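Marked as duplicate of an earlier ticket. Keeping the data here for the record.
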Amino acid sequence: MAETTIKYTMMAGIFATSLGGAAWAGGPADDKLVIDDELEITTRVKAPEGHPLDEVISGWHYRTDETRALEADSFQNPGMLYVERGEEIWNTVEGDAGKSCASCHGDASESMKGLGAAYPKWDEKAGRPLNIELQINKCREDNMQAEPYKFDAADQKSLTTFIKHQSLGMPVRLDLSQGDMQAWWDKGKEVYYRRTGQLNMACANCHEDYNGNYIRADHLSQGNVNGFPTYRLKQSAMVSLHNRFRGCIRDTRAEFPAAFSDELMALEVYVTWRATGLSVETPAVRQ
């Protein structure tokens, strides 16, 4: 036991040293994101009151020239395949009620516009915030009488991506006055700054203390979530926000909570607020 403790203490020390010494500054790229030469995306904005940083910067600025170019071209953006699949699902009848999403909500470009910029939202009946994935499952069960999606099911990611995409270019704005949203924000903030795992690290260590620096080949961004679900080239797939949360927690050598757990939903509320004013980029492209 003592040998194992010493081993991980040394690992944590080496990692901390890499942050302090081997990490070198890179800074965000000085560029503008314009989708298809038509829609300019707000990727840098003054931070809202109470934010720990002066400026909020999209993760797009921290990626390579080639990756940034992929997101700027809808024809080249691999995440658009998920948008197309999501549109098919939107119009597909499922469940015992014989309904599709479109049966209730009609044209998504109108009914879903702005929704992706305002979620998570408070749900009075559930007594907690719901994100888009949970709202989809609620609609499937209550209105379509269909089975809810399992976490990270392919169709769940596609439909979520399609719905978020309807708010492309719109600024992220959470209403913390709804229900107990402020209490969930407070809990999310506590999770964000809480050190965890054998490496004894918090979200803030990478995304606040060292954003703009390189560690090996990884360029640390502020960790803003305005582009999720995000197409990650590393995984050649669309990645959901709670998948990414769990991946980061895993990297600290900690046990990660279940997706959509109270802890991760609180974290989603807080980090979404941290991106206030940035445009929705879904589907963003990251490395």
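See parent ticket for discussion. Residues 95 and 129 are 25 Å apart (CA to CA).
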